[in-house]
Amino acid sequence: MSEMSIDDIVTLITKQVMDTIAQKKQAAGAADCQGEACVESVRKKVLLVGPKDPLPEGILTGAAIYDIEDFKAERNVLKYDQVIITKLSLDQLSDAANGRTGDPVANAIIYALLEGVDVLMTGCALCYRKFAGKGSSAFYNMYEQFAKKLQIYGVKLLDSNLQLKVQQAVPPKYPSKPAVAHMPVFPAQDSRLITESDALKLAAGAKDQVTLPAGSILTPLAKDVFTRAKLKVVLE
Question: Does residue 12 belong to any structural domain of this protein?
Answer without folding.
Answer: no
